[in-house]
C-alpha cells in the first residue's frame, strides 16, 4: 500500500494519508474494541493453554491423560451430555414460551411477570438447589408430602439426572427468556398476521414463521445453555454426588482441590469444552449469516402489536400462575420460610411459633455488608454497561463489517465462557501482580474479571440482535450523509437496544453471584456480596444465608423492573 | 488489506502487552523468591527480638512497636475469626485489614503474591494442610513464647501454631436415630441396617487418611480397611460441604453423618436442631479425628510486631471468643471437650509428601461404594 517510492515527500504524503485514514473515529473505535476483546480473552487463554500443555519439563499431554484417562470417563461424559442437553432443552422451551407470552400476547401483569421470569437467576445457585432438596427430596420433600396420598411416598426424586435437569433448566431459563424477549421485540408481526390471514393455525404460525425467524437467538441460547450446564457446579455437586452421578465439573473439582491444583487436567477438560464451543459459535454464525432471512427490522416501518389471546387469556393466566407457583414461588417461599427460622425443619405449629426476624437483624450486623452491597452494585452496573457497549461494536465488526479476520473477534469473545473461574482468577492475579500499573488490590481487577467472564454473554445478546437488523437502514443513513459514528449512535444503537438491555440485565444479575474468581481477586475493602454469601455458607449460617438470598431477590427484582420500564421507552415502541 | 493489517497489529499489540506483563512462564514458578528484600530482614529482626522476650516486657515492647506500625493485614479462612478481630481492635489501637476466603484461595493468594514479591499480608490464619505447604516453601517465620508452649502438642507445628482444632465426629439426627440406637463405633456403619441413612462428605480426605492409618495401626490389612470404607460408602449418601451436610442432617435428609465438625453440630443443637454427637448414655463414638488449624507469621511482613501481638491475643483472649463459637481451642481449658476421649491426628507428613495418593484413594472408595448399590 505504501509505495516504495524513493521520493521523500511522496512517501511522507502516503504515510500521512495512511494515518489520516487510520485516524477516523471508525477505525479508532474498531481498533480499540477489537484490541480490548483480544486482550481480555488472551490473558486467561494463554495461562490456560500454558498450564495445560507445558510443565517444568516442557511440552506434555499428561493433563489429558489424567483428565480423560479415568475408566469411568465414558459414563461421566454420558451423564454430562444428558444433563447439559436436557437442561438446555428445558430452559429453551420454558424461556421461549415465557418470552413469547410476555412480548407477543396480552397476558396480564407484564411487569411483574418479567421480574418473576428472572428470579430463578437471582437466587444464588446453592440456595436454589437446597430449596429444591427441601421441596422434592424423596425423604424430606414438602411436595412429596403433599402428593403422597395420591402417588405414594417419595414420588418425586430430585437426586436423579432428571432432577438435576429440572433444577438446572429452570435456574438457567432466564438466560433464554432474556434472549428471546429481545428477539421477539424486534420481530415484525405483519409476517405472522399474513400467515394467519392465509388460514394458518396459531400453532402453524408459531412453528413455521415465528421459530424460523428467531433461529439465530435460539441457536445462541442452545449454545450458551449447553456450555453453561456442562460447567455448572452446585447442581451436580449437591444433587448428583449423593447417588454417584458424576459429571465434567465433579471431575474438575477433584483435579483442582489438592495442592498444587492440577491445572493441566483442569485445562484439558476446559480445552475439550473450548473445542465444543468454537464449533458451536461457527454453527451459530453459519445459521445467522444466511443472508437477509432473519432481518425483520427493515426500512419498512412496523410496530410490534401484542396478539390478543381472547378466550385463551384466562387459561394462559392460569398456566402461568401454576408455573410460577412451581418454579419461582415454591423455592422462594422455602427460602423465606427458612430465613425466619433458627434451623430448617418441616413446617409445623412449633416451627411457626419459633419464627423471628433474627436472621435479618444479623444481616445488618455483618461487618462490611453495606460496603459489599455498594461494591457489588458498582461492579454489576459497571461491568454490564462496559460489556454491552464493547459488544455492540464487537457485534458490528462480526456481523456487518467485511474486515478479514472478524470471526476471530467472535471466537475470542466466546473463550472466557469455558475458562474455569479459578483459572481466570489465577491468570489475572498472575498478570496484575507483575503489572507496573497498580491494579492488583483495587476494585479494578474485579471489574476486569467480570468484564472477561461476561463478555461471551454480552456478545451473544448483541450479535443475535444485530442479525435481525437489516443493513439497508444503515445504508440509507450513510447515503443521507451521516458518518459511521452518527449512524451507529443514532440508528443502530436504538434498534439494538432490546438485545443490549437484555444482556445488560443478565450481566447485572449474575455478577452479584460471581464467586470463583472474585474470591481470589478481591482485597480488604473491596468485598462483594458473593463473598459474604460464601462466608455465611462456610460458617454454617444457612438461615442467615436464606435471609440474604431474600434481600438479594428483592433488591435485584426492583432494579430489573426499573430497567424494564426504562427499556420499554427506548427503541422499538409497542402499542 | 488495510483492515487486515489493522487487526493483525491489534492482535500483535495484545500479545505483546500480555507477554510483557508476564515475563516468565506462569505456571512453572518455583518457591517464593525467598524474601531477600528489605521488609523480610526487618521483619525477622523484630520476630527474633520478641521471640526472646517474656511476660510484661514482651507485651510492652510489642505494643510499642505495633502502635508505630498502626495496621495489620490478615489472610484467613477461619469464619469465626471476625469476632476475635473485633476484640483485638477494641483492645489495641491497630487497624486490621482482613482477606477471607476458603483455605485453597488463601493458599493460592499467598503463593501468587509471594512469587511476585508482593507483601500483601503480615499474618495467615488457615488450615493445617495449607500452612504446611507455605512452611515447606519457606514463607513463614517461627513464633515462640509461653503461649505456644501451652498449646496441645499436636498443634505446635513447624513454622506455625495451632489456634483451634477441627474435631471430626459422628453426628446424628435425634429424631431419626433414637436414644440407644446410636452406633458404638465407626465399623458398625458398614452394617446394611444403615443403608441410605448415613452421609459422607466428598472432600474429607484428611479425616479419611487419619481413620485409614488408625485401622492399619489396629492390625487390619490394607485390603480390610479398604473393604470397611467401601461397605460404609455403599450405605452412604454423598454430600458436598459440611454446611449443606449439617443443614440436611438437621432437616432429616440423612440420619447420621460420619465426619461432621463438632462445631457444626454444636451450633445447630444450640439453635434447637435435633442433632447431637453425644449418645444418651456414655461417651461419644471414638476415635475422634482432630486436625489443628492455626496461625503463622509471614517472613516478609510489613507489620511484624502487630502480627505477633495478634497471635498473642488470639492465643489468650481469643481462645475464649473462639470457644463461644463452639470451636475447640488449641490451649486445653478446665472444661476441655476432648478430655478423656481417644483422639487421632491426620498424617500431615504423608499428606504433604503425596497428597494425590490420598485424594485418589478416597475418591475411589467413595465411587466404588456407590457402584455397589
TrEMBL record, chain A:
Transmembrane segments: 27-49, 81-101, 113-135, 161-184, 205-227, 263-287, 315-337, 377-399, 411-433, 439-456, 491-512, 542-564
InterPro entries membership: MetI-like (IPR000515), MetI-like_sf (IPR035906)
Top-level taxonomic group: Bacteria
Entry keyword set: Cell inner membrane, Cell membrane, Membrane, Transmembrane, Transmembrane helix, Transport
Localization in the cell: Cell inner membrane; Cell membrane
GO biological process: transmembrane transport
Pfam families named in the record: BPD_transp_1 (PF00528)
Membrane topology: Multi-pass membrane protein
Signal peptide: none
Keyword Transport: yes
Cellular component aspect of the GO annotation: plasma membrane
Cell membrane in keyword set: yes
Domain ABC transmembrane type-1: 77-282, 373-563
Family per similarity comment: Belongs to the binding-protein-dependent transport system permease family.
Protein name: Iron ABC transporter permease
TrEMBL record, chain B:
Gene3D superfamilies cross-referenced by the UniProt entry: Periplasmic binding protein-like II
Keywords recorded for this protein, A-Z: Signal
Record's keyword annotation contains Signal: yes
SUPFAM superfamilies to which the protein is assigned, alphabetical: Periplasmic binding protein-like II (SSF53850)
TM regions (residue ranges): none
Domain of life: Bacteria
Leader sequence residues: 1-23
One Pfam match: SBP_bac_6
PANTHER family assigned: THIAMINE-BINDING PERIPLASMIC PROTEIN-RELATED
Record protein name field: Iron ABC transporter substrate-binding protein
Amino acid at each position: 500500500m505504501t509505495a516504495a517510492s524513493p521520493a521523500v515527500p511522496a512517501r511522507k504524503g502516503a504515510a500521512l494519508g495512511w494515518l489520516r485514514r487510520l485516524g477516523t473515529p471508525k477505525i479508532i473505535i474498531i481498533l480499540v474494541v477489537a484490541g480490548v476483546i483480544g486482550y481480555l480473552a488472551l490473558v486467561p487463554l494463554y495461562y490456560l493453554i500454558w498450564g495445560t500443555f507445558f510443565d517444568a519439563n516442557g511440552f506434555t499431554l499428561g493433563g489429558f491423560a489424567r483428565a480423560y484417562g479415568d475408566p469411568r470417563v465414558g459414563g461421566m461424559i454420558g451423564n454430562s451430555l444428558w444433563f447439559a442437553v436436557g437442561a438446555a432443552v428445558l430452559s429453551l422451551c420454558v424461556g421461549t414460551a415465557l418470552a413469547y407470552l410476555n412480548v407477543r400476547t396480552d397476558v396480564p401483569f407484564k411487569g411483574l411477570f418479567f421480574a418473576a421470569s428472572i428470579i430463578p437467576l437471582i437466587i444464588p445457585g446453592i440456595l436454589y438447589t437446597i430449596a429444591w432438596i427441601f421441596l422434592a427430596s424423596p425423604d424430606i420433600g414438602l411436595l412429596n408430602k403433599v402428593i403422597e396420598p395420591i402417588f405414594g411416598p417419595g414420588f418425586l426424586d430430585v437426586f436423579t439426572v432428571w432432577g438435576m435437569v429440572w433444577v438446572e433448566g429452570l435456574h438457567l431459563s432466564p438466560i433464554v427468556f432474556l434472549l428471546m424477549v429481545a428477539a421477539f421485540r424486534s420481530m415484525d408481526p405483519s409476517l405472522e398476521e399474513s400467515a394467519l390471514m392465509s388460514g394458518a393455525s396459531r400453532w402453524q404460525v408459531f412453528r413455521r414463521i415465528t421459530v424460523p425467524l428467531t433461529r439465530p437467538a435460539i441457536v445462541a441460547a442452545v449454545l450458551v445453555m449447553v456450555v453453561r450446564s456442562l460447567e455448572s457446579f452446585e447442581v451436580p455437586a449437591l444433587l448428583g454426588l449423593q447417588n454417584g452421578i458424576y459429571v465434567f465439573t465433579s471431575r474438575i473439582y477433584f483435579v483442582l482441590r489438592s495442592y498444587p491444583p492440577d491445572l493441566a487436567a483442569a485445562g484439558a477438560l476446559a480445552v475439550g469444552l473450548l473445542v465444543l464451543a468454537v464449533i458451536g459459535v461457527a454453527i451459530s454464525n453459519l445459521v445467522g449469516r444466511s443472508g437477509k432471512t432473519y432481518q425483520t427490522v427493515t426500512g419498512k416501518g412496523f410496530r410490534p402489536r401484542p396478539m390478543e389471546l381472547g378466550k385463551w387469556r384466562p387459561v394462559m393466566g392460569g398456566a402461568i400462575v401454576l408455573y410460577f407457583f412451581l418454579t419461582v414461588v415454591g423455592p422462594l417461599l422455602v427460602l423465606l420460610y427458612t430465613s425466619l427460622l433458627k434451623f430448617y425443619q418441616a413446617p409445623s405449629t412449633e416451627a411457626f411459633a419459633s419464627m423471628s426476624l433474627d436472621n435479618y437483624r444479623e444481616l445488618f450486623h455483618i461487618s462490611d455488608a453495606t460496603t459489599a452491597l455498594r461494591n457489588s452494585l458498582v461492579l454489576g452496573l459497571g461491568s454490564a454497561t462496559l460489556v454491552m457497549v464493547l459488544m455492540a461494536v464487537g457485534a458490528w465488526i462480526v456481523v456487518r463489517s467485511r474486515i478479514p479476520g472478524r470471526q476471530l473477534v467472535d471466537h475470542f469473545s466466546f473463550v472466557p465462557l469455558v475458562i474455569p473461574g479459578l483459572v481466570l482468577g489465577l491468570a489475572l492475579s498472575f498478570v496484575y501482580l507483575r503489572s507496573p500499573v497498580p491494579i492488583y488490590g483495587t476494585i479494578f481487577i474485579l471489574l476486569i474479571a467480570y468484564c472477561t467472564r461476561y463478555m461471551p454473554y454480552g456478545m451473544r445478546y448483541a450479535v443475535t440482535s444485530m442479525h435481525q437488523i437489516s443493513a439497508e437502514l444503515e445504508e440509507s443513513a450513510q447515503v443521507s450523509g451521516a458518518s459511521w459514528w452518527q449512524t451507529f449512535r443514532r440508528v443502530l444503537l436504538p434498534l439494538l437496544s432490546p438485545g443490549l438491555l437484555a444482556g445488560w440485565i443478565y450481566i447485572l444479575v449474575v455478577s452479584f453471584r460471581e464467586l470463583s474468581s472474585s474470591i481470589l481477586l478481591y482485597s480488604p475493602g473491596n468485598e462483594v456480596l458473593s463473598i459474604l454469601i460464601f462466608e455465611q455458607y462456610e460458617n454454617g449460617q444457612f438461615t442467615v444465608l436464606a435471609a440474604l438470598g431474600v434481600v438479594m431477590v428483592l433488591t435485584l427484582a426492583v432494579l430489573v423492573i426499573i430497567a424494564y420500564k426504562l427499556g420499554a421507552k427506548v427503541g422499538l415502541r409497542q402499542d | 488489506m488495510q483492515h487486515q493489517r489493522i487487526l493483525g497489529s491489534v492482535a500483535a499489540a495484545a500479545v505483546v502487552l500480555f507477554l510483557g506483563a508476564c515475563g516468565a512462564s506462569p505456571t512453572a514458578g518455583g518457591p517464593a523468591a525467598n524474601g531477600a528484600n528489605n521488609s523480610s530482614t526487618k521483619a525477622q529482626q523484630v520476630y527474633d527480638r520478641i521471640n526472646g522476650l517474656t511476660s510484661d516486657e514482651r507485651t510492652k515492647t510489642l505494643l510499642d512497636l505495633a502502635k508505630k506500625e498502626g495496621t495489620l493485614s490478615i489472610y484467613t479462612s477461619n469464619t469465626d475469626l471476625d469476632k476475635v478481630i473485633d476484640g483485638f481492635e477494641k483492645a489495641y489501637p491497630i487497624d486490621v485489614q482482613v482477606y477471607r476466603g476458603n483455605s485453597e484461595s488463601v493458599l493460592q493468594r499467598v503463593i501468587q503474591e509471594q512469587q511476585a514479591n508482593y507483601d500483601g499480608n503480615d499474618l495467615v490464619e488457615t488450615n493445617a494442610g495449607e500452612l504446611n505447604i507455605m512452611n515447606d516453601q519457606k514463607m513463614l517465620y517461627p513464633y515462640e513464647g509461653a503461649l505456644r508452649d501451652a498449646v496441645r502438642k499436636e498443634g505446635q507445628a513447624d513454622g506455625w501454631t495451632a489456634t483451634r482444632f477441627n474435631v471430626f465426629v459422628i453426628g446424628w439426627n435425634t429424631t431419626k436415630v433414637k436414644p440407644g440406637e446410636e452406633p458404638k463405633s465407626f465399623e458398625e456403619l458398614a452394617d446394611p441396617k444403615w443403608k441410605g441413612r448415613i452421609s459422607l462428605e466428598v472432600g474429607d480426605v484428611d479425616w479419611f487418611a487419619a481413620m485409614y492409618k488408625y485401622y492399619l495401626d489396629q492390625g487390619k490389612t490394607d485390603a480390610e480397611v479398604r473393604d470397611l470404607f467401601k461397605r460404609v460408602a455403599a450405605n452412604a449418601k454423598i454430600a458436598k460441604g459440611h454446611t449443606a451436610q449439617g443443614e440436611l442432617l438437621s432437616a432429616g435428609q440423612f440420619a447420621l453423618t460420619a465426619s461432621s465438625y463438632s462445631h457444626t453440630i454444636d451450633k445447630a443443637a444450640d439453635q434447637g436442631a435435633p442433632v447431637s454427637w453425644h449418645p444418651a448414655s456414655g461417651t461419644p463414638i471414638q476415635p475422634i479425628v482432630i486436625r489443628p488449624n492455626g496461625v503463622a507469621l509471614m517472613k516478609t511482613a510489613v507489620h511484624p510486631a502487630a502480627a505477633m501481638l495478634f497471635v498473642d491475643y488470639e492465643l489468650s483472649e481469643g481462645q475464649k471468643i473462639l470457644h463461644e463459637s463452639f470451636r475447640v481451642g488449641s490451649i486445653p481449658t478446665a472444661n476441655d471437650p476432648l478430655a478423656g476421649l481417644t483422639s487421632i491426628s491426620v498424617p500431615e507428613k504423608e499428606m504433604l509428601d503425596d497428597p494425590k495418593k490420598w485424594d485418589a484413594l478416597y475418591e475411589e472408595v467413595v465411587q466404588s461404594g456407590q457402584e455397589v448399590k
